[in-house]
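[job 4471] stage=fold_predict status=RUNNING
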Amino acid sequence: MSHAAEGTRVQKHIGDPVRDNAPVARTKLEEIFADIQSDLRFDHELNGCLNCGICTATCPAAHYYDFSPREIVQLLWTENLEGIYDAMQEKIWACAQCYTCAARCPFGNSPGGLVMLMRETAIKHQMKSAKDVLRPFSRVMLKLISTGNQLSPDMINKDHFADWGPNISKVDAPLKLLRKAIPMPTLNTTATAWEVNLKTSVELYTIWEMTGVLKQLEGIDENLYDVISDIMDEKREDWKDFLADQEEDKDE
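[job 4471] inference complete, writing structure tokens
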């Protein structure tokens, strides 16, 4: 049964207690919540709330950040649209997605799963919080789509990962020499962790395209989307040429 049918627990419109004009239109808040609620996972992740606090007591992120799994559940359960929107600006990005909350909740809720839905909705609506959080991962996304590897040895340096802290400056190993010592010939490179063939690259790109991942990426980082599109257009042409060469060899 859909949670929307139960009206007694739903909070009335709270509004902004400080300003007469709300920073976000009510219709926009309703649209955002509708996108979260319409996901097939929503009714499986949210089953009620005893407000016991077990999820927050066992949450690693709650010990270090302004984050509470219980608050996330309560906001969604009561359909507090203003609170939901506010949590999507910063709090949901503190979750480590460890799902300790889901393992401990006596009601069978999954606050971590609900946070995932809220994150996906933040990306869909191109919220600034999503853009800020995902921007450092642009180099990883580009590497993944262009080579099939999330990281490569030559990326582990202080210029690429300054946000890793002072210890990254100590990484000064002769990577090329060390990689040559690895017996597997496919690993004898620092540009990729392993070789991914052309067919796999094209198939991965098609999956991301068909599932809407690239469309979401376009809304978050248009420049990165354009670069990736150019790379994959070239790979698709190379794959077509390869197949054409294979057909010619068969005919001969």
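[job 4471] summary: The CA atoms of residues 41 and 229 lie 31 Å apart.
[job 4471] exit 0
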